[in-house]
Amino acid sequence: MNSQNKLKIINDPIYGFITIPSSIIFELIEHRFFQRLRRISQMGMSYLVYPGAHHTRFQHAIGAMHLMQKAVQTLVFKGVKISAEESEALYIAILLHDIGHGPFSHAMEHSIVEGIDHESISLLFMSELNKEFNNRLTLAIQIFSDNYHRNFFYQLISGQLDMDRLDYLKRDSFYTGVSEGSINSERLISMLNVVEDKLVVEEKGIYSVEKFIIARRLMYWQVYLHKTSLVAEQLLTRLLKRAKYLVTNGVVINASKHLSFFLNCSITKKSINSEILNEFANLDDNDIISAMKSWQYEDDFVLSNISKMLLNRELLKIEIQIEAFDREYISESKQKLMARYSITDEEASYFVFIGQITNQAYSMKKETIDLFTKQEKTIDVANASDHFNLKALSKKVVKNYMCYPKTNN
Amino acid sequence: MNSQNKLKIINDPIYGFITIPSSIIFELIEHRFFQRLRRISQMGMSYLVYPGAHHTRFQHAIGAMHLMQKAVQTLVFKGVKISAEESEALYIAILLHDIGHGPFSHAMEHSIVEGIDHESISLLFMSELNKEFNNRLTLAIQIFSDNYHRNFFYQLISGQLDMDRLDYLKRDSFYTGVSEGSINSERLISMLNVVEDKLVVEEKGIYSVEKFIIARRLMYWQVYLHKTSLVAEQLLTRLLKRAKYLVTNGVVINASKHLSFFLNCSITKKSINSEILNEFANLDDNDIISAMKSWQYEDDFVLSNISKMLLNRELLKIEIQIEAFDREYISESKQKLMARYSITDEEASYFVFIGQITNQAYSMKKETIDLFTKQEKTIDVANASDHFNLKALSKKVVKNYMCYPKTNN
Amino acid sequence: MNSQNKLKIINDPIYGFITIPSSIIFELIEHRFFQRLRRISQMGMSYLVYPGAHHTRFQHAIGAMHLMQKAVQTLVFKGVKISAEESEALYIAILLHDIGHGPFSHAMEHSIVEGIDHESISLLFMSELNKEFNNRLTLAIQIFSDNYHRNFFYQLISGQLDMDRLDYLKRDSFYTGVSEGSINSERLISMLNVVEDKLVVEEKGIYSVEKFIIARRLMYWQVYLHKTSLVAEQLLTRLLKRAKYLVTNGVVINASKHLSFFLNCSITKKSINSEILNEFANLDDNDIISAMKSWQYEDDFVLSNISKMLLNRELLKIEIQIEAFDREYISESKQKLMARYSITDEEASYFVFIGQITNQAYSMKKETIDLFTKQEKTIDVANASDHFNLKALSKKVVKNYMCYPKTNN
Amino acid sequence: MNSQNKLKIINDPIYGFITIPSSIIFELIEHRFFQRLRRISQMGMSYLVYPGAHHTRFQHAIGAMHLMQKAVQTLVFKGVKISAEESEALYIAILLHDIGHGPFSHAMEHSIVEGIDHESISLLFMSELNKEFNNRLTLAIQIFSDNYHRNFFYQLISGQLDMDRLDYLKRDSFYTGVSEGSINSERLISMLNVVEDKLVVEEKGIYSVEKFIIARRLMYWQVYLHKTSLVAEQLLTRLLKRAKYLVTNGVVINASKHLSFFLNCSITKKSINSEILNEFANLDDNDIISAMKSWQYEDDFVLSNISKMLLNRELLKIEIQIEAFDREYISESKQKLMARYSITDEEASYFVFIGQITNQAYSMKKETIDLFTKQEKTIDVANASDHFNLKALSKKVVKNYMCYPKTNN
After folding, report:
1. Contact C173, C52 (CB under 8 A)
2. Which residue of D has its CA nearest to A390?
3. Which residue is closest to A184 within chain D, CA to CA?
4. Is position C326 within any domain?
């Protein structure tokens, strides 16, 4: 009751005022699980390329909830029945959809808690919160895990035009300053409707959808798969792998209580329990950065050098090309490094490595974006007349990259 | 030479593209002293109120340098003579003006390295860099320390309309989403000129200057002196003071290598040397946050509770009023807390305390903002006809605040 | 019924999408009386100074209606009771508030139909429309003419913070490109409330209100009272006066059917009837511009010269000063002109004349802007602590101007 | 000399301040030929769909000149040699590129002065001005007519990425409020360069170019070829044709002096002379609107009805489809109208008619947009890897439309 009168409005650089729709939402935001997201960078280490990109999962989650409110308003205005319980569940589901993200958003997934994606952890957090909140999150959990009978609900959470994407594309474009990647989320939402339990876009929205797809593609090439971001992300993942490797082999290295916990134990999807989740709830970007600051003085060549590289932005060089890299070229590069610093092949492979990046602007195999025509037909946007190019954009683009130290040149 | 071809342009959410004007500027930005600013929050813990406010001193410094380029272009276009050496020195001086900021921008100044302002430390860093860069920063240092014979140079670095203010007001308004605080920096710059070695604003800019002063005042009341920011900042300062107190009294508490250094030694303006500066160069926001995360488990009531408060955003209550607070009211509040948790008066005073905030939109005593009229006269903007209100705005406003735990109610 | 499916959304450069809330609003917009506003420039001939300022009364009226929807939503959300009939009446009243504007918004009022302000004509149009729409505008008319028992309704239409001002200040700032004059209308609206049947602003909105007043003042000096606009407006008024004078004296001059009607007859507030209103409904900017284009070839020195001046932007010179102009200085200037072109004193007085402009940012005598404090008191914003400057801003500023031909120099 | 001190800066809602680079540019803008552009709507009658679209050719021409300044700065910065004479000529050429536009931009071309495009008339005006300005426009005329030896100069005036397009796409998107059509002109310009006398875009600009093409396509479908705009433009053209037909057949209809001139005489490209050009220089939107206002009372069924339709926005219905319209369907519709109003087949064909619209986002046959790769190769953007979709976009899309009166339903 009292919380009713507390914070009700949040200032957002993008949407202006965001209203918190109910007291349970307010309490969830106040919860320390959610407050942790203030310390989880939305775009990992992309700020090394785009200095403005220091926004957090906290803002994104609240932004996505704001857009969900707009979507519910639009749909209800158009005659779609959504009950008060259902709308609150939608807000909760989108608010918590990323609560399982670890430090730098994706760094943990590919290193320390391998094999467990952040969605699974989000679900675990929701269950935990559901206990604390007397099962008031049950419906939200059903929607989030796609177990609710109304299909379009899940599409709003996780689909081609979900509120997650509509917020993060806009937000990431805003904070990086890559204005060409900006999308008009509110306009797209205003053209949504539901036909036969499926989310559709009104026909007149065809150009906006196309613009959305192109903007998304641009953000991938220009921002998410930016050379330097790619190097930084790879280095971060390898740093954590190295730390885990060292600890597993009995080397003592400095780390915060909670990071140590994860470096020391081996976790699988099955073995996660409340205790582990609680440890996870204490991890954030600071644990990683602080570890780097300490690790730069460690004896291990790999650990200290990657730490320095990330702290001082003295990263690896990267080449990107369509063809695979020549094995000999890679081997030579590694040899050079091994000779220079008298390190083993295994150590060198932390600094000389290859990989692939892929980008598919629009997938025609999975779920489609459907238009609803004036003739009341539902058609895939890729098949709408005059849009041949979407078929082209649905081809997956694969590129190869190779990283190696600048000093190798 | 090679650096010429490296990074030359930086994306900024506010100004779009920022060009790096020369290779020495590029190298200074790449220096680890400057890269550290990526980990220093521009607005301290204000993100607890404005979730978007995660921008850093790094961005601000580069933004201010960008505005300095605009200012130099404008002045040169209007016939003010500025040599290539002078303009580069101006860019360096503004780029480095905040390099001496510690974690959360102001937290250190009022606690651990008391008595030493960040400008002094900036100057020390500049001297250190000057050695590394073969005295190429000498002119920049002269300008920064107001020892250059052309007075308006210093005004561009530190004056009523300096590039520092013109960037941070705009930037803070942008990231907090408090759009009413926004100023039109580029427009103000376009109306600058120099008369008798003094920076002036063309007469037609009178309303823009007025708007600037009002926006600044609004930012102070609404953002910088916002209740919750104030509480957070006070708590942060007190947390560090407590840590120092404990360490001084022989209590062992967990802290990063570099934070420990400062908790353990007593530093005065005179005693600072290269070694201490090097330690300082390793401190950033992460050291503080990581310390809090560890300190929340410490035995000390004050240390653990303030840490939890800041981490989970469960802050003190604050009251603000014109009159001083009643001594008895304060005392009562403290007694209640002491009784509740069986703590000493000294410990309670970390949670129940009073203070003052002041705001003066325009000072008529110090340096003025001068208008240059069509009759070629220079007059203080406050004396320009029809602007009586500036005189009113130059009155200093003082308010009293009192903080105490929510549980006291 | 059919109209339900017609145009429902209007694109606006400022607010994005504007929704038309009901079918009667839609039909009123479609009415030829309202469509005429597409041909009435919002800012008279200000586009001679600000080339972007070609926006029309049509856009402004719809924009103000959009803001009224926001205001009603806000107030209803805060518990103010507003029935569906009342809200529709508010939308109609604000939509039609400017429907009585003649060509170039104010040119007619001060020349051809002297003594009749546009509000009176708006009311006449509303009555006319009320007949056509089966008295469905009755409540709107009551509100517009301040005859409705709920006082704050009229304040939303015509008050210190009415939707008219909140739209035109924002819109004029947008189209002129004078971004410093911009106000945050949506934010101001979000802080409105009603206390004892009076519109109030929540206390926290104090800085926003101040910003609003300053922005308004800036728009007056920099835009509405801009030297060149002033000259153009004066010339336009004098041109129409001259035309009327000539026609009254039997000179035949070319003019459109509807403009001729008004040049030929003398109209008073009392004598206006349906027929005259119908003639008025056919007048717009084109009648005036086309007349000028024709009049530039007329024999009359005054008529042809003012026409050319306005068409080719070769305006009079203007001086502005606090003191009154010296009578001799004026007389001399006139003599010079008379001698140069062998014209009479009466003719010369169309090109050499004086006048006054006044600007009062905030009037304390009339209706005030009231703040509603947390202590639930209502206070005038000018008396709120720390805002002395508003008292200063409430002083009326009066300036004198004098116009004369450039060739006089 | 005096003009130096006159107007030097123009406020633009889009770019902020626009600087007038030299006194001849200033004098050209002041010329009555150019001032006329203030009365020529940039987007014809599109304001009937987008009420904000009242911007003029005047603003567009100045905006394009502003972008040309940016382009010259960028190219010079990158080492392209452009002399002061050349850059001034570029500014003049782009400033005057649209000076030959008649009322509503395109209405005349397809009706009254058929067979003469506005570029030809622009060239005639330039020649006329060249006489007045003592041949100081000679170089500009060479560039504008593609007779200058440096090819990329013409590309800046009229090419795939010319300053004309870069301004009008941005400007039209801004004023219509169709924000998805916005392009980042300044960013595109910043990536231009010249290789072998040909304008190229740096490779990293590939996504920006793609975005530009998509935005342009969207503007065509959503704005320039918008159903209602299309109807209005067709009606306007037919109205003027009807007027000319009537006059040619001896019917006396009311029209301004200058419009009458063109209704009465038959003009071919060859027959245009100074006198005709002078008449043309007096025509603008007002002549057309005023004519309509008069013509709505004429006896001729076609003339009066189209006039009313355009004035009161009661337009024809339009259907658009890929296939051609059935002849019988068209015939039936016409018959119905003929019967209803007892009009001839010829008269009815003004209200029932068919036509085609085409849209080609990117033409691969004509001039291409070339990228300049890091390997210093020049390649067509359509052949750059991963951009198959541009090939698709280069297919021309043709659609059929049919218009008929609403009353026919």
Report:
1. no
2. D389
3. D180
4. yes
Contact B102, B280 (CB under 8 A): yes
- Residue D366 confidence (pLDDT): 66
For residue A403, which of A311, A307, A337 has the smallest C-alpha distance?
Answer: A337
Q: For A164-175, give the secondary structure using H, E and C.
A: HHHHHHHHHHHH
Which of A182, A206, A226 is the last residue before a domain boundary?
A226
Structure tokens at B68: 């300095």
Question: Which of A226, A260, A276 is a domain's end point?
Answer: A226
How many independent structural domains does chain B possess?
1
Asked if residue B376 belongs to a domain, the reply is no
Same domain, C93 and C204: yes
How close, in Å, is residue D392 to chain A by CA atoms?
Answer: 5
pLDDT in the model for residue C6: 42
Please name the member of C52, C256, C311 whose beta carbon is closest to the beta carbon of D13: C52
Report pLDDT for A236: 95
| A390–D389 C-beta distance less than 8 A | yes
Least CA distance to A226: which residue of chain D?
D204
Tell me the chain C residues in contact with residue B385 when contact means C-beta distances shorter than 8 Å: 322
Angle made by CA atoms C174, C175, C180, in degrees to the nearest 5: 40
Q: Which residues have C-beta within 8 Å of that of residue C264, sequence separation ≥ 6? A: C247
pLDDT at A8: 79
Shortest distance between the Cα of B392 and any Cα of chain C, in A, equals 5
CB nearest to B17's CB, from D16, D17, D190 = D190
Residue B317 in domain: yes
Query: What's the gap in Å between the CA of C153 and the closest CA on chain A?
Result: 26
Q: Based on the domain organization, do A208 and A66 belong to the same domain?
A: yes
Question: For residues A261 and A95, what is the distance between their CA atoms, to the nearest angstrom?
Answer: 28
Residue closest to B69 by CA, chosen among B123, B27, B20, B16 = B20
For residue B69, give Cα distances in angstroms to A4, B20, B91, C141, D191: 49, 10, 7, 57, 20
Closest CA to C162 of C69, C67, C87: C67
- Chain A: closest CA distance from residue B49 (Å): 8
Q: If pLDDT is split at 50, 70 and 90, which confidence band does A385 have?
A: low
pLDDT over 70, % of chain B: 95
Contact check, Cβ <8 Å, A214/D214? yes
Enumerate the residues of chain A whose CB falls inside 8 A of the CB of residue B46. none
Each residue's pLDDT tens digit, C327-366: 999 999 999 999 999 999 999 999 999 999 988 777 766 6
Residue B164: exposed, middle, or buried by beta-carbon count in 10 A (0-12, 13-18, 19+)?
buried
> B288: domain CATH number?
1.20.1250.30
Residue A28 lies in a domain: yes
- Decide if pLDDT at D386 tops 60: yes
Q: Do A179 and D179 touch (CB under 8 A)?
A: no
- The distance from CA A125 to its chain's CA centroid, rounded to whole angstroms, is 17
**Residue from the list B322, B385, B393 with its beta carbon closest to the beta carbon of C389:** B393
- Contacting chains of A (3 CB pairs or more, <8 Å) are B, C, D
Q: Write down the mean pLDDT value for chain B.
A: 90
Distance CA C392, CA C390 (A): 5
Q: pTM, whole model, 2 decimals? A: 0.87
Share of chain D above pLDDT 70, in %: 96
Domain that holds residue C282: 227-357+402-408
Weakly modelled stretches of chain C, pLDDT under 50: 1-7
The helix/strand/coil state of D321 is strand
Residues contacting residue C191 through CB under 8 Å, at least 6 positions apart? C201, C202, C204, C205, C208
Averaged pLDDT for residues B67-85 = 93
Task: Tell me whether residues A39 and B289 touch, CB distance under 8 A.
Answer: yes
Q: What whole-number distance in Å separates Cα of residue C164 and Cα of residue A246?
A: 69
Q: Are residues A150 and A239 in the same domain?
A: no
